């Protein structure tokens, strides 16, 4: 199983890129959002990948973070959602937007993806709403696990054979920072005894209201949503 690929972009298609890895070209299908964020032809890139095996076809799908790859895996498990629909959802909403829509039960947001109708969107929400909190709780680590290597190697997950050299920590992007804050807030609320699903929905609402809020502010705002209505 190819879990990650790094090399130089040789060609950009409408829904895929051809990545040259030491003389071997890999066609990697990506979402519109990922394609727009990738560098130009001749430049280095790295993506986490998922291999789809069919009877007479092997297809690689690429993702900028493990968080997005995890959502692809979950979406593919929903009846009626294939690779094309999953990539359309992630392309329209991104990993964070997909998590927020599912946590809030917002099927209408899912229909923003081309080719995804109301019935399928509702099924996505119903089947994944209970799984969304656990993914959100791990969102900080998954979102931060970007694929920065440009050494041109295909890398699969493996146990380290030697202690890595100490490196300066990577600075997370704005989206990754928001995911980390939301995950910290969710963890704190669960530790306070709140139901994980309710806590995830409250954090999502708080994050929507103030996307730049840090964990402490998200917790305070979420607690207001969780307070009994009188």
UniProtKB/TrEMBL annotation:
InterPro entries, alphabetically? DNA_helicase_Holl-junc_RuvA_I, Hlx-hairpin-Hlx_DNA-bd_motif, NA-bd_OB-fold, RuvA, RuvA_2-like, RuvA_C, RuvA_C_sf
Q: Which Pfam families match?
A: HHH_5 (PF14520), RuvA_C (PF07499), RuvA_N (PF01330)
Q: Where is the Helix-hairpin-helix DNA-binding motif class domain?
A: 73-92, 108-127
Q: Where in the cell is it found?
A: Cytoplasm
Q: Name one GO molecular function term.
A: ATP binding
- To which protein family does this belong? Belongs to the RuvA family.
Name listed for the protein in its UniProt record? Holliday junction branch migration complex subunit RuvA
